[in-house]
Amino acid sequence: MPLDSRIDEITDRIRERSRDSRDGYLKRMRAQAEQGPRRAHLDCGNQAHAYAAMQDQKGDLAADRVPNIGIVTAYNDMLSAHQPYGTYPDRIKAAAREAGATAQVAGGVPAMCDGVTQGQAGMELSLFSRDVIALAAGVALSHDTFDAALYLGICDKIVPGLVIAAATFGYLPGIFVPAGPMPSGLPNEEKARIRREFAEGKIGRDKLMEAEMASYHGPGTCTFYGTANSNQMLMEFMGLHLPGASFVNPDTPLRDALTDAAVVRASEMTGLGNAYNPVCDILDERAYVNGLVGLMATGGSTNLVLHLIAMARASGVQLTCADFDAVSEATPLMARVYPNGLADVNHFHAAGGLPFMIGHLLEAGLLHEDVRTVAGGGLSAYATEPKLDGDRVKWEPGPRETQNDRILNTPENGFAKTGGLKQVRGNLGIGVMKISAVAEELQHIEAPARVFHDQAAVKEAFRAGELNRDVVVVVRYQGPRANGMPELHALTPLLSVLLSRGHKVALVTDGRMSGASGKVPAAIHVAPEALLDGLIAKVQDGDIVRVDAANGKLEVLNEGVAEREIVHPDLTGNEMGLGRELFSLFRATAGRSDRGAGVVI
């Protein structure tokens, strides 16, 4: 199927806009690649330190006879998604030896859990952890002894940070190795109901705790379609996973076989052989457009709007918020996965999952097939699914028919004609809305503003009954410069209660919402943020605010707002405690949210 003209035009615009930065990036990568095997440039003393613990493989490493694979791991056993990675290094080393290669843990990167820090002060470090991860991975790979890398990470900021690092070391081949989602627990809609009842005071904390523990109950990624699982989707659409690797449960024979296969493939792609396949050649403008299509077709996380812009810049590609909007207009919504539906990612995977989706999007001309991937060849390899052949993996054609058309459907029979995200803009600035879970009649609201400077104040007003009306809740001073741009997901149950009472409600903020953003219309990531004198800083209680997803509008309708004087609140409380004092430089130098909110790139 020929490429859809709209996708072609979007890609051309990105390519032209990125010409100089992409050319400069590739020139740097080619210069690094031309130096040959990395270890050859180390002095004998350098190499001796690097190989001291490698026992009987020292000679092969010193002679540059075998590929050496660096493992960059985000393992910790506090994150359920990353707990399975504890056993991966030994497995990878054994698989590398069998493949005629060596492997070493190059280094670890931090991995914080947004589920633990939601509504807490620690969430103010969350976005910046992406840049810390990129920096830490850079330190790990700076030893310059590796011919390829395996990146072990799944969750919210971890994959984007690792991609930034992989792009920075783009002359190295690299594969992202997932660990899979936990088995299904308490249905997501039941969990949401219990959260609403707790917010209304109808049940106690004991019942809430019981429901939460039944939802998050074992090793693996959380099963709703939030940022973590959006990351996994993205790695397949962009060709950095092996095909079909994303949603295979942990600690299963197929999961183990996929990990072994990633090691074999990494050893084949190095510059020591004839199939050199560096990350820099995979991460071009076509790969990012494919990622955008996947994001829109699945109704994925709003956090990826920030992360994709930052990831792309690391590989010389210049994305803008307008690109997301244009791709969304061209891409039908093909999946209904919680919070956009009742199903979780295990149900999505069983219904046909990513192989079904990628195959149909290719047939519809909505994806670039002619891209480089870690699997070799084009994106059509990702329309296949992995099966066990003994203890090894083989790939067979993916499903052509959905197993549940309430969860997954073809582009022609999609759940909406356009994708799950929408850009909104106006005198309040530029923002983004996730509309895949928002009823159409709720996507336009004009109502008086109620202005807050933190989540706690919103909760107090809710408990006092002050929000029982049509209202646009404005929560400002939540941007990267103000306090690190925390997620405001703790507000979702409260605002959902107001919706259930028949009120028209919207949220407008320069902060973030969770990847699990649901049915409440929310214009988020508003830029410029309040601390940078964006107009959101001048909005007052009672001003009429328009949030209109259908027409892409975000406006305050009162006259004279722009002439008001800004008096910034005291934000010193954001500067201390739980390590926030260590991140003052990050807050001071963070970029705008519509440019990725980064401090590294």
TrEMBL record:
GO terms for cellular component: cytosol. Its cofactor is [4Fe-4S] cluster. Residues 407-597 form the Dihydroxy-acid/6-phosphogluconate dehydratase C-terminal domain. Keywords: 4Fe-4S, Carbohydrate metabolism, Gluconate utilization, Iron, Iron-sulfur, Lyase, Metal-binding. The keyword DNA damage does not apply. Residues 67-379 form the Dihydroxy-acid/6-phosphogluconate dehydratase N-terminal domain. It catalyses: 6-phospho-D-gluconate = 2-dehydro-3-deoxy-6-phospho-D-gluconate + H2O. GO terms for biological process: D-gluconate metabolic process; Entner-Doudoroff pathway through 6-phosphogluconate. [4Fe-4S] cluster binds at C155, C222. Its EC number is 4.2.1.12. Binds 1 [4Fe-4S] cluster. InterPro entries: 6-phosphgluc_deHydtase, Dihydro-acid_dehy_C, DiOHA_6PGluconate_deHydtase_CS, ILV_EDD_C, ILV_EDD_N, IlvD/EDD_N, Thiosulphate_STrfase_CS. It holds the Pfam family ILV_EDD_C. GO terms for molecular function: 4 iron, 4 sulfur cluster binding; metal ion binding; phosphogluconate dehydratase activity; thiosulfate-cyanide sulfurtransferase activity. Catalyzes the dehydration of 6-phospho-D-gluconate to 2-dehydro-3-deoxy-6-phospho-D-gluconate. NCBIfam families: edd. PANTHER family: D-XYLONATE DEHYDRATASE, PHOSPHOGLUCONATE DEHYDRATASE. Belongs to the IlvD/Edd family. HAMAP family: Edd. This is Phosphogluconate dehydratase. It comes from Jannaschia seosinensis. The gene is edd.
